[in-house]
Design brief:
The chain is of the alpha+beta class. It folds into three domains: 209 residues, HUPs (Rossmann fold), CATH 3.40.50.620; 74 residues, no CATH class; 119 residues, no CATH class. Helix content is 39%, strand content 20%. The chain is built from 14 helices and 21 strands. Strands 3-2-1-4-6-5 form a six-stranded mixed beta sheet, with helices on both faces. Strands 10-14-17-18-19 form a five-stranded antiparallel beta sheet, with no helix packed on it. It is elongated.
């Protein structure tokens, strides 16, 4: 008589899968945050990681305020976490009504922004195999490329935040079985039944029909997403190799096949944090780029949603849309930073460099003016007065950045252009205290991170 086999324990199976993901991706002493909506999936995940990592977890509930039950859901999450001594952060967000991308996308954007602002470094989300299948179908219906068909990765970096999806290889049925076995309760979001949302339409109308014909559909689609993810990794590796080979000689780009050119350009745009345009737009950019590179003095400007693609002096620049140039002069007392053309101008103490601190002491406020043309500076004692135009060209400042530069005057005399030159008689002697001029992005002064918005990034 054959020995009977006990059915697998859903709690043990899920626990093993989640533990494997955490062992591979979570640093040994790191705190794990969990996105906690109060729905069944996030309840299962939070209960599971609480058992695996007692004392090392935090929960975050994002209150969108889109449902009349939002307060009740937040209360449920608070009670659930209190019963298990899990610290909970509730973040209220504003979702842009009537957003161009739709309510679902606007809510998702607000949610992820809240995650990034929470202070978490590693955050787990409860997406599972059915979510992965839905995401793949949704992206395919929108004509996605390989990257979109890869759907959701198990581990993803988002700025300083690492997102984990420990349940991504687990079925919805397995989560439901775990919830029953642990006698868990959860809240139901009434919007999940509204088929006007595309994802819900796929979930309630399309997937059941397909699953009736292909019973293993969810697992099959999730496996297909994994194959696309592998292909996307290979495409990125090829693009990185092409990018390295093109360094300093962009003129070699037209020698690559059109698919490789497009793959390289998508890679550059994605590294910049920009969304790659549709294939037709991408091919038009490459056509214009090839034409420009064949000219003696190659120039190109191509407007995209996030900014402008520019070819100048053999280099490709990706420049986010900047603030408009200042057109009026203003006074600057030098004691506090001054806003100019969307950036902030400030003085940083130094020694033996920059502006002579003794000359600034007790002087009248300096005057900031935009470029008018024809300005000159004497940059060396006894030397000639050189045109600012030549100084900017020698410094490699792209033409589109030049109108935004602040020119610093004392009374009627031009004394400096930040990062370019200081008039000889205002330069700090080697053994004296000085002030270094800094004209920087607003974000840099706040976060101490390298500037990015509004700054040209060149692609060699």
């Amino acid at each position: 008589m054959a020995a009977s086999r006990n059915p697998p324990d859903p709690a043990a199976t899920l626990t093993a899968q989640v533990a494997a993901c955490l062992d591979a991706a979570l640093p040994e002493t790191a705190l794990l945050w969990v996105g906690f909506s109060g729905g069944q999936d996030s309840v299962v995940l939070l209960d599971l990681v609480h058992r695996l990592l007692p004392g090392r977890i935090r929960a975050i509930h994002v209150r969108h305020g889109l449902s009349p039950n939002a307060d009740a859901w937040a209360d449920f999450c608070a009670a659930f976490c209190h019963a298990r001594a899990i610290p909970l952060l509730i973040k209220k967000v504003e979702v842009a009504q009537g957003a161009k991308e739709g309510l679902e996308a606007a809510a998702r954007k607000a949610r992820y922004r809240a995650f990034q602002e929470s202070g978490a470094t590693v955050l787990a989300l409860a997406h599972h195999q059915r979510d992965q299948a839905e995401t793949l179908l949704l992206h395919l219906c929108r004509g996605t490329g390989v990257a979109g068909a890869a759907a959701m990765p198990e581990v993803r970096r988002m700025g300083n935040l690492t997102l984990l999806r420990p349940l991504l290889h687990s079925s919805a049925a397995a989560l439901a079985a775990y919830a029953r076995a642990r006698s868990l309760s959860w809240v139901e979001d009434e919007s999940n039944a509204e088929e006007r949302h595309t994802r819900n339409f796929l979930r309630h109308r399309i997937l059941p029909e397909l699953t009736a014909r292909f019973p293993a559909l969810e697992a099959t689609l999730a496996r297909a997403a994994g194959h696309f993810a592998e292909a996307q990794t290979l495409l990125c590796e090829r693009a990185a190799e092409d990018d390295a080979a093109l360094a300093g000689r962009l003129s070699a780009l037209p020698a690559l096949s059109l698919p490789r050119q497009a793959n390289w350009l998508r890679y550059r745009l994605q590294r910049q944090g920009w969304r790659a345009p549709e294939t037709a737009t991408l091919e038009e950019i490459l056509r214009q780029l090839a034409h420009a590179l064949a000219q003696a003095n190659p120039r190109l400007e191509f407007e995209l949603t996030e900014g402008c693609l520019r070819l100048w002096q053999g280099r490709l620049y990706m420049t986010p849309h900047p603030a408009p140039p200042q057109t009026e002069k203003c006074l600057w007392d030098t004691r506090t930073p001054c806003s100019w053309s969307g950036k902030r101008l400030r003085l940083e103490p130094c020694h033996g460099a920059g502006l002579n601190a003794a000359l600034l002491a007790g002087k009248k406020p300096l005057i900031l003016r935009p470029r008018q043309g024809g300005e000159r500076l004497q940059t060396h004692p006894g030397g000639p007065h050189r045109t600012l135009k030549n100084l900017l060209r020698e410094a490699g400042i792209p033409p589109w950045e030049r109108p935004r530069l602040p020119l610093i005057y004392h009374e009627q005399t031009l004394i400096a252009c930040p990062g370019i030159a200081i008039a000889a008689n205002w330069q700090c002697p080697p053994d004296r205290p000085g002030w270094q001029l800094r004209w920087e992005e607003e974000a840099q002064n706040e976060s101490k991170e390298p500037p990015h918005a509004g700054q040209s990034h060149e692609c060699h």
